[in-house]
Design goal:
Strand order of the largest sheet: 3-2-1-4-5-6-10
CATH superfamily of one domain: NAD(P)-binding Rossmann-like Domain
Structural class: alpha/beta
Strand content: 5-15%
Low-confidence stretches: 1-10
Radius of gyration: 20 Å
CATH architecture of one domain: 3-Layer(aba) Sandwich
Mean pLDDT: 93
Shape: globular
CATH class of one domain: Alpha Beta
Length: 325
């Protein structure tokens, strides 16, 4: 299938990555760079953007303060398409819908045509089917799920009223080389260091993970097409795997058996008395016992086959990165 070219004007960047300095932003920027597509990267910190993108000739850096409407409008001015992946602290999920509304209002005011939101499985709540497709009820029973659902609704309501074209790409839990905001991350650093790894249990439930470098090419293909907007998509991982099996493979590459310290829900509650992050993890623990496994067939119908790195290869790459430090 031949993809149409990206909409551009005289080679100027028309795509802006909001919240670009994270792992997903890096993957998307690499995919756009591989296609020779100029883009803008938007973040709060000039130093952070320079560190992440200073060596990328196709990236134009823009600083914003998303709490300031004028700064937000300036950041998206002249753009055709926004990719929204702005993170918030795990104990401040109430900011997700607030920021989404501000971005939509700025996009509408500046004539931005399309907004792609990088989302999560949280809005679905507990899975009601072995495989969750886009028609699955969004019935979140957690605060974080409700905030993510509200975030989605703000964007797709703007699409419905014709203010802009919206789309959502939902990701499962992710992992990748050097990706520290993954609950698998400590497995790789611990195996490389020869210490006990801290993991959240149960560890024998089949789970799904997406390899971060696989995300960028998917986003690039969604952005290349016009008919992919106005819809939502679930990106499935490369099948399922248990945390125990990830640990077995990672430690085997380091030359030894797995050494694990497993925290269940009760331990998370106790740790949460002293650590706010641990306290926040309790609410989402259902994903360890009732994981959401995506059906990604709608995405593949929209953009064609999706390349997915097998777990063995992904784990090997993560271990290589962990050894390099």
């Amino acid at each position: 299938m031949t993809s149409p070219a990206f909409p551009q004007v005289a080679g100027a960047p028309r795509i802006a990555l909001l919240g670009a300095t994270g792992a997903i932003g890096a993957s998307i920027s690499q995919a756009l760079s591989a296609a020779g597509t100029p883009f803008s990267v938007v973040g709060r910190s000039a130093a952070g953007l320079s560190t992440a993108f200073g060596a990328c000739p196709l990236a134009t850096q823009r600083i914003w303060n998303p709490d300031d409407a004028a700064s937000l409008r300036a950041a998206v001015r002249g753009m055709d398409t926004l990719v929204h992946m702005v993170g918030v602290p795990y104990d401040a999920f109430h900011l997700h819908p607030r920021l989404m509304r501000a971005v939509v209002e700025a996009a509408e005011a500046e004539g931005v045509r399309r907004v792609l939101l990088i989302g999560t499985a949280y809005p679905f709540g507990r899975p009601q089917a072995p495989r969750v497709d886009e028609s699955h009820p969004r019935d979140p029973h957690t605060f974080k799920g409700r905030m993510r659902k509200e975030q989605e609704d703000i964007l797709m309501e703007a699409d419905a009223r014709g203010a802009l074209q919206g789309a959502i790409l939902r990701l499962p839990d992710f992992y990748g080389p050097g990706v520290d905001r993954s609950f698998l991350a400590d497995l790789f650093t611990a195996a490389a260091a020869g210490r006990r790894a801290r993991v959240v249990g149960p560890i024998d439930t089949p789970h799904e993970f997406v390899f971060v470098p696989d995300v960028g090419p998917v986003v690039r293909e969604l952005l290349r097409r016009e008919d992919t907007f106005g819809r939502t998509y679930n990106l499935a991982g490369a099948g399922t795997i248990t945390v125990r099996e990830v640990a077995r493979q990672a430690f085997a590459l380091a030359g030894g058996p797995p050494k694990l310290m497993v925290a269940g829900k009760t331990m998370l509650r106790l740790a949460g008395l002293f650590d706010p992050l641990m306290r926040e993890l309790v609410e989402m623990h259902y994903l360890m016992t009732e994981p959401v496994i995506f059906d990604g067939s709608a995405l593949e119908r929209a953009i064609g086959p999706v390349a997915k790195t097998p777990y063995a290869d992904g784990i090997a790459q993560c271990m290589a990165a962990a050894r390099r430090g």
